[in-house]
Design goal:
Layout lengths: L1 H20 L15 H6 L2 H17 L6 H5 L4
Length: about 80
């Protein structure tokens, strides 16, 4: 069951990223989509840590600063 859910979500993610990158592979604005709180609640503790670390790394690449909202998970 977990593997099937993973593969379904991975395919949806790949489709979303492909549309957002376009034919030339350059982003047309932001990539991905926001996670809703229900999806985050389904994650295991180690997955939440990995997601948080990914957010920190992505923001560091763009020179962005981490805000209190980022830590709390508030949506803008």
């Amino acid at each position: 069951m977990e593997a099937q859910l993973f593969m379904t979500e991975w395919a949806r993610y790949a489709s979303t990223i492909t549309k957002q990158l376009g034919l030339r592979g350059k982003p047309k604005g932001e990539l991905g989509e926001p996670l809703d709180s229900q999806s985050v609640e389904m994650l295991k503790d180690d997955q939440v840590v990995q997601l948080y670390e990914l957010m920190l790394a992505a923001k560091a690449l763009h020179g962005d600063t981490i805000t209190a909202d980022d830590v709390r998970g508030s949506n803008k």
